[in-house]
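Response to reviewer comment R2.3. The reviewers asked that we include at least one raw input/output pair. We reproduce the pair for FixH family protein here without editing.
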Amino acid sequence: MLGRVIGALPAFALAAALAAALAACASAPPSSDYRFELLDQQVRRSPNAEVRVRLVHLPDNRPVSGAVIYEHRFDMPMSGYKVATSRMVRGPNPPPIATVEEGNGVYRVHADVPMAGEWMMTLVARVPGEVQPVRGRVPMRVR
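Raw output as returned:
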């Protein structure tokens, strides 16, 4: 019966169904086999602050080199106020280099963190061998 239904579908309908199936696969949740770890206990507030993180592959607890952090966001939730946010590229003068790999799974992230307090850093990276992006959230203190 399925063969008759597929045979009766126009080619474009079959292509649309195939595209929808592929999109469902592409939107699968990212791997939870990775974690970003903050290396700096405190970060100085600055329009070009540097934050060092290590990307770790959890199953073998090894640092991951060769990843590309292509998106980061810094949020500061304040009770009763709007959330202060700093994105990877912001304004007319973004940081000259958004992220730099130092080696051994350590990455230096640049961002605009204008005030002291508790911030949440969200990172998205392409990791060699992974189909889906790796996402992580790291709390940090800015002084």
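The longest strand covers residues 46-57. The chain is about 15% helix and 45% strand. Further pairs are available on request from the corresponding author.
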